[in-house]
């Protein structure tokens, strides 16, 4: 199962609820304003780092770059993907849950 | 349609918004009612502010002030539409100081592990 | 669109459903029925009144399948079937009866 989060964790609790309710082994993709959750140095970094022991976490690189960041700003263990990678994630998972 | 060609899929509607402030809750309910005509295996989850959709005693009448349709009454009609699986996230309910007695329909309260398991069993997840 | 009832103009939508549900009166149901060349009998009223009660309780117009089942439960098997309801309301118990009852078009009517 793939979970997607497109809201900033500072604005909505979507990321926190997603990580709380995602099963071990599920993939999580952060895109649009959700990419702020993937960035080092925020108060959400410990939450995201902890989740990495149970879930693979991906971030859409073009949405990072659009916001003035790049791979180097991403929490260790979070993988960057491009649009093709996004499509692969959707195709590889049986279902997708969007955390709006 | 021939009987043996019918494919029953598991549909989960995830509700995470409070009623009235945005149109998400009402839209979700309308999609559930329309979708009920297709005889699928339907579940509803209420998480975060979505729990507020099920709060008892909503009064939206003109006299009370809001002057909107009180669609909370419609959740009680779901059973007749064969939508019987309503799940509430325990933590979301607890955090809001609510208990099952505050909710207007019978629901099943799920902890994180059970909710995650239920979500994993779905074929289609629709988020509101 | 609009209909005239007792000298009052009642607003309706493009499918002849009432715009304001609170406008409804029995006379309006009779005028709408006459437009469809129907004379409302006690049997019709039983269904129309049931629909109004249902809407009051659940805030929706029931889908035909749900209505049929509920009518059967409440008024007996001889009434809880499509044949009976379509005999009363040839344009459909969902669409036509709800319209006479001043309700919106049933949710799930596709």
Kindly identify the CATH topology of chain C.
Answer: Arc Repressor Mutant, subunit A
Can you tell me the CATH topology of chain A?
A: Hypothetical Protein Ychn, Chain: A
| Global morphology of chain C | globular
Class by SSE composition of chain A: alpha/beta
The helix-and-strand class of chain C reads: mainly alpha
Can you tell me the number of structural domains of chain C? 1
Mean pLDDT of chain A: 97
Could you name the ranges of chain A where pLDDT drops below 50 across 5 or more consecutive residues? none
Side by side, the strands of the main sheet of chain C go 1-2
- How many individual helices of chain C? 5
How large is the share of residues in beta strands of chain A? 15-25%
SSE topology string of chain C: EEHHHHH
Radius of gyration of chain A: 12 Å
The CATH homologous superfamily of chain A is named: DsrEFH-like
Main sheet strand line-up of chain A: 4-3-2-1-5
Classified by CATH, the class of chain C is Mainly Alpha
CATH architecture group name of chain A = 3-Layer(aba) Sandwich
Order of helices and strands of chain A: EHEHEHEHE
List the helices and strands and how they pair.
The complex is a heterotrimer of chains A (100), B (128) and C (110).
Chain A: E1 2-5, H1 14-21, E2 27-30, H2 45-51, E3 56-60, H3 61-66, E4 79-81, H4 83-92, E5 96-99
Parallel strand pairs in A: 1-2, 1-5, 2-3, 3-4
Chain B: E1 10-15, H1 24-35, E2 41-46, E3 85-89, H2 90-95, E4 108-110, H3 112-120, E5 124-127
Parallel strand pairs in B: 1-2, 1-5, 2-3, 3-4
Chain C: E1 2-5, E2 8-11, H1 26-35, H2 42-58, H3 64-75, H4 82-88, H5 95-100
Antiparallel strand pairs in C: 1-2
Structure explained in plain terms:
The complex is a heterotrimer of chains A (100), B (128) and C (110). The model of chain A has no long low-confidence stretch (mean pLDDT 97). The longest helix of chain A has 10 residues. Chain A has a five-stranded parallel sheet. Chain A is α/β, with parallel strands linked by helices and 100 residues long. Chain A has one domain: DsrEFH-like (Hypothetical Protein Ychn, Chain: A, 3-Layer(aba) Sandwich). Chain A is built from four helices and five strands, in the order βαβαβαβαβ. Chain A is globular and about 35 Å long. Chain B is of the alpha/beta class and 128 residues long. Helices cover 21% and strands 19% of the residues of chain B. Chain B has three helices and five strands. The longest helix of chain B has 12 residues. The radius of gyration of chain B is 15 Å and the shape is globular. The N and C termini of chain B lie far apart (31 Å). The model of chain B has no long low-confidence stretch (mean pLDDT 94). With 110 residues, chain C is mainly alpha-helical. Chain C has a single domain, classed as DsrC protein, C-terminal domain (Arc Repressor Mutant, subunit A), CATH 1.10.10.370. Chain C has a two-stranded antiparallel ribbon. The radius of gyration of chain C is 13 Å and the shape is globular.
